């Protein structure tokens, strides 16, 4: 029997999965969560074999919740559900150690199969999800993305430098490069451009 916590803000989908997954395989749903904060709480409290979590949720999203869970439960097995995984998002999730990706359009029997595979120590990325992820058109380096991410939170160059432990001149160089590559006039425009293209 595999124990599972389900986290998805779409109540209908979450309830359907909670009802159908145990019918499809040897699965016990320990708890449901409708946002990232609840997902963290439920996972730490119930310690499931597998956390099934939606990528896009209000407040703390799937990636934010996974990062939080990893701090306390570094070996937690995680299956991420997604409608449209962009390359940057998939890269981040893989860095966080997410073991599986399944399309939200998948049949319950397929999700059950993947949960069992992950529980046995395997990894799984649905072909339609991986096809999207392979198309990586981001010209920015990791450091440039990191600086833009902090810029998007409204910090000054000095504050960015302090937060990322970089010299202010280095931060300016990264921002200048990012603006050139995105053909924008300001660092805030560059950050917005990167976000719109799902690079952040």
UniProtKB/TrEMBL annotation:
Domain Response regulatory: residue ranges: 3-119
GO molecular function: DNA binding
TM helices/strands, residue ranges: none
Cited PROSITE patterns: HTH_LUXR_1, HTH_LUXR_2, RESPONSE_REGULATORY
SMART domains documented for this protein: HTH_LUXR, REC
InterPro entries reported for this sequence: CheY-like_superfamily (IPR011006), Sig_transdc_resp-reg_C-effctor (IPR016032), Sig_transdc_resp-reg_receiver (IPR001789), Tscrpt_reg_LuxR_C (IPR000792), WalR-like (IPR039420), WH-like_DNA-bd_sf (IPR036388)
Location of 4-aspartylphosphate modifications: 54
Keyword set, alphabetical order: DNA-binding, Phosphoprotein
A GO biological process held by the record: regulation of DNA-templated transcription
Domain (HTH luxR-type) ranges: 133-198
CDD domains given in the database record: LuxR_C_like
Family annotation (PANTHER family): TRANSCRIPTIONAL REGULATORY PROTEIN DESR, TWO-COMPONENT RESPONSE REGULATOR
Descriptive protein name: LuxR family transcriptional regulator
Organism name: Amycolatopsis decaplanina DSM 44594
Lineage: Bacteria, Bacillati, Actinomycetota, Actinomycetes, Pseudonocardiales
């Amino acid at each position: 029997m595999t124990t599972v916590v389900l986290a998805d803000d779409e109540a209908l989908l979450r309830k359907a999965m909670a009802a159908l997954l145990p019918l499809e395989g040897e699965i016990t749903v320990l708890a449901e969560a409708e946002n990232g904060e609840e997902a963290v709480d439920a996972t730490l409290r119930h310690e499931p074999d597998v956390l099934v979590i939606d990528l896009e949720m209000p407040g703390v999203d799937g990636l934010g919740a996974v990062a939080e869970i990893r701090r306390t439960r570094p070996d937690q097995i995680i299956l991420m559900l997604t409608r449209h995984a962009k390359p940057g998002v998939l890269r981040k999730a893989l860095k966080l150690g997410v073991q599986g990706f399944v399309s939200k359009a998948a049949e319950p029997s397929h999700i059950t199969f993947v949960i069992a595979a992950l529980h046995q120590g395997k990894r799984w990325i649905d072909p339609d999800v991986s096809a999207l992820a392979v198309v990586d058109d981001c010209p920015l380096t990791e450091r440039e993305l990191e600086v833009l991410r902090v810029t998007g939170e409204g910090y000054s160059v000095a504050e960015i430098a302090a937060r990322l432990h970089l010299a202010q001149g280095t931060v300016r160089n990264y921002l200048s490069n990012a603006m050139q590559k995105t053909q924008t006039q300001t660092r805030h425009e560059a950050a917005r451009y990167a976000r719109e293209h799902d690079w952040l």
